[in-house]
Fold these 2 entries.
Entry 1:
Amino acid sequence: MESSRKQRWQQLQSVFEPGFKQMLLVSILLHVLLPVLYYSPFFPKREIEKPPVYRVNLVNKIVKNPQAGRPEAAPVKKKPAIKPKPKPAVKPKPIPPKPKPVPKPKPVPKPKSVPKAEPIKKKPAVKPKPKIQAPSKKAKDTQADAIKAMQAKRDRQALIAGYKDELIELTEQPKSPITGAPVGMMDGKGDEAGVSAIAFIQEFIQQQWNFSKYQAVGNPEAEAKLFYNTDGTLLHYKFIKKSGNSAFDESLIRAIAKSRQLPQSLPESMEFHIFFNLKDMLDNP
């Protein structure tokens, strides 16, 4: 039995190439050592850089390569070029025609006198007096309803006019501290007037976010990945790391749910890695 086993082992050894045992041992050692070295402090993990948080005017267009500028600046409306009015062409004065000689009028014969006939006097027709009917109860109710509807409409218009200034202040976009600044990003290196997609989405989610500062405990931070298509529709999202503050995490879920549809389209389908820091979000109302 032992001799047959030795013979089989010798046959197997003859099949493998020389040095196969050494290669097998090296491969096993590498597979064991690499995970150990990866999780050891000798190989520090690469942290994802947090993008700076900007105030963004949501009227600005989302572009792929934004130029250098301010994301909160309002786009400059180009005034239409005023075309000069064409001068009226001077028409030549027409030459008046020569007057034709007027023929002398022929004498008109006098008409013979005809006796006038006496007009026949007609008796005036007596019109019947219209009967004045009192308005019915239904007509009175309809008239009263119409007056009430008009009064309610006037009250609504007065209420809207009274709160017009307040509504404008609530919906006002952030203003740039630098007047006349071009629309772009502070670190922009492209040639397109607009803002980056991630800055726009962060601002849009910020505007949908609602969280009381009295619920804030510490400075929780969460990370999430969001996937949008070219139409600006959120396909799906997932939290890479939750903050551990249930109230803060739930407020983020509600804000993301309200941001399922962006008011603009994107240059392409995009994935965004967004950091939600409570302090930054409270400082950026």
Entry 2:
Amino acid sequence: MGEKVGFVTMGEVKGERGEIPKIGVGMLGYAFMGKAHTNAYKKYPYIFWPPAAIPRLVAICGRNEKAVEEARIRYGYEKAYRDWQEMLNDPKVQIFDNSGPNSLHCEPSVAALNMGKHVFCEKPLAGTVEEARAMWEAAQKSSAKSMVCFNYRFLPALRLARDFIAEGKLGEIYHFRAQYLQEWIMDPNFPMVWRLDKDVAGSGALGDLGSHIIDLARFLVGDIATVSALTRTFIKERPSLEDPTRKVPVTVDDAFVAVVEFSCGAIGTLEASRFCAGRKNHQVIEINGSRGSIRFNLERLNELEVHLVGEEPKVFQGFHQVMVTESYHPFYEHWWPHGHIIGWEHTFIHAISHFLDAVVNNKEIAPYGATFEDGYRCAVICDTIVRSSLSGKKEELRY
């Protein structure tokens, strides 16, 4: 196994900086996000060479014995567990990757932090604001690192956009507007999956899609001060997964819209829906300031539209498209020659790289990575959007 240094085991691979440590990963969940995170752990070491550490896929956990064993073989984990507590008790698990349903974010993550294990948790941080606060408090008390996987923070184009704003290239920020639109549950015969059950998901489009654009609003512009919002559930009953002839109530929102005020004085709109015909994964963000504007479209994620006041020849007035693929652009030193684009999966590789660097080299997660405090603040904003929808009034943020 090699010599243990801190919480990692020194491996046999050497990079330019000497021996590269290995670090054991225990994964909760084997579906969509389990696949995305595992892919990132496997690709990270040879893309970000030399890596901060080489992830060792120690264990994967899920409730279905056949499915989790199949995932273990498919993804290359050493062991499979059906109980997350048993997996956390495995001394070889040093990083707990929580890719389970939202209802399983709080208890296992808090347990892992209390054991001194590092936690990489999918978004939203928790199903409720109370659980999110408990996770943040546990993170504050723990010596271990913790990070929320808001992966869009790690897109080269959005990191460049943040740099633009931080450097004052857009001047005073006036507007932030964001949409995140999909279509996948429009069919009224689509079954009652866990994402439509409040007890498991916490919320619908608000937590699933809205949390992304809320986090990006905070990441790019700053904290939100007030919210005025509406939520809507368009299809109130769906066929049960167990018995398709029986209808069960949908207990989450299908869509929300919100008008927000930022602490810096900017105003904005946020919208998310899973009922937009023709929209597959349509996330569009536009930011307007006194000296320019930027616009980003997730389905064209290697591009950033930019207009800077007074810095272009008149013939080129208006937005122009920047291909964010040069070697000096964020993250691109690790990838391909300019113009050779990357995709959605690479956001997770960048996020895992940031997290492992923080773990091994005792660096801060903030400001580029989302801390558990960021996850908690996002949960408070989601909760305030629901409160505003119920009250019909503008609501102030109360952390």
